[in-house]
């Protein structure tokens, strides 16, 4: 028996695996070192489950609900609120074009630059969740301040030092960074290398030179030109990425040493820094810097000589963290501010004798604002939870960077539409104008969105998170031929079984409407778990079909790759929503948010599959896949108008659900502040609603329209339609409404 098994195995190796291994070797695109390092960076987490076709929901549900420590909560309620109170965004953006000096001082002295630095170095050492909550809250007050705070805490000198610095470097710089004595920046982008940052032309030449009184120091002469560098104009410490060359072989035989990172005090001779760009009128510090033949010792390389050439990998590893926190927090902040402020505005502002939020067209925009904000917050907190558990989910961090900034783009646009002219006139009363101007900034930084969607999410995910592809690629690059074949054979046959299972499961679950899928939870979340499992199997099948039939050309077929990335992304966003809903105790009042978000994600998944199959180059394969995934036609509908109406209603009226959705924004008490004015006016308008309606209906027969509010109130009281008390409520609501709808005006400068 054993002999038989052995024989069939050697037959399989010889006639199937070996020829296929040779084909794979030929068709697998050669990966550059930078691509390989980007792929290796980070870890596989829930993305691995989504690629498996059979996600283990138990793993997700067992994750702890997001929770801030008492110290973190106190910092949010204390220092963060104090900072927010100091920030007058209009003054910052239109008058001063910078944060006020006392805010800079407060930020530096109170640890805002040290959120990720351990306590042993004097930092705050907060969780990713707290870091996210802090950036989010500040962003709802001033995007300029939020960007200034987030940069030193994400991809920058502190993070790189913590992960890779020598003890000496850590002991020197980390306490200084924690105390705000150093202002850091990190410079990778150069005019000729933006998205393709691995192609930076900036370089260093290893050499010896006298330096700061010391003779014959081993160092490097650096030449660089960088731009867009956040905090650069005010930085005292410049993190710099460059390619290191050793033409005289002073270090080793190798002349081309690869991308390397160094920390350079900005007062070093030859460093040109200080000029500013103007990033769409949001005056956070960002600007160019350069140097020609600037000599610095080799000790200034982050991690010392042993880290020479590892710069790209170091950056990719750290990006996996930072990308999952800062911009998602900023985007969610914009969503929450819109949900609270625009919801209130839509209830307060009336046209055609109705609150504008009750018109179906406006309801549609409000539903998107509410639904997207819920999804953003769910994905933000779930990703932070993963980071706090030591994961470095690079694919998921790309998903949240892309999808949360895109959702913010839509939410802010919707908010601007609802505000109408009040969104267009900039000034202290406008809560959305600066967010609108800031949209392209979040879209472009930390990986511009088109590239992130079309190349990174699926491109990286298919290799890293797929259960077999990475194993196959490792087998191909194995040097020992026998071991290579052995490993490849194991991975290949596992992979084939996987494809067969996913084909059968996709078809079966489609025909049975996912009813036979075991799913946790009770109604209403249960059906969504089932449908998502079905879509995960379909996604796994589509992934393999695309990889097997298109192979290396898939890398150039960015539109197909983007759609596969959309499916994966919506599987993640939907998972996050389920997690959030259940973590918050499955509140009945949040059910419209749950239904809207899940129905939206499922219909987006369906749309992406449809687009993929319509454009799939091999038509018979596309036909077969459609038959296996949607044998009975399309299954999922986008959220109905009725559901959209329920969601919009939740933003128009103060409620627990609205408070939960918008939790974590900065809400000043002073009703002269725009967002507080809106909140206050909403309460007054709602309180007066019944009395206003009574008055409106009661006065129908009295032709009192021309008498103004006071006249109508007088008639109303006289005719017994309303009481004195009602009149007071109506007066208060009217004053608040009038105040809310005012926009800013300024003296004409050309007079
Ligand atoms: C305000 C601001 C602050 C910044 N801060 C920093 C900083 O502190 N440090 C730092 O090093 N950098 C920083 N950057 C740089 C930022 O990360 C880059 O702008 C970004 O990586 C994109 O580069 P680029 O602007 O040159 O665009 P380009 O690379 O020229 O891209 C232009 C467009 O082409 C698309 N594209 C490019 N390649 C592909 C592809 N293969 N497939 C599909 N689409 C593609 C992009 O998505 C984009 O839409 C900052 C940028 C800005 C605007």
Describe, in plain words, how this protein is organized in 3D:
About 60% of the residues lie in helices and about 10% in strands. The chain has helices spanning about 1-25, 35-40, 45-50, 55-60, 70-85, 90-95, 100-110, 130-140, 145-155, 155-165, 165-180, 310-320, 325-350, 360-390, 395-420, 420-425, 435-445, 450-465, 470-475, 480-510, 525-550, 560-585, 590-615, 620-630, 640-650, 655-660, 675-700, 710-720, 725-740; strands at about 185, 205-210, 215-230, 235-245, 255-265, 270-275, 285-295, 350, 355. Strands 1, 2, 3, 4, 5, 6 and 7 form a seven-stranded mixed β-sheet that branches. It has a two-stranded antiparallel ribbon with strand order 8-9. Helix 1 packs across helix 20. The longest helix has about 30 residues, at about 480-510. It is flat and about 100 Å long. The structure holds flavin-adenine dinucleotide (FAD). Flavin-adenine dinucleotide binds near residues 185 and 230. Flavin-adenine dinucleotide binds near residues 450 and 455.
Q: How would you concisely characterize the structure shown here?
A:
With 751 residues, this protein is α+β, with helices and mostly antiparallel strands. It is 59% helix and 9% strand. Helix 12 (311-322) crosses helix 15 (394-419).
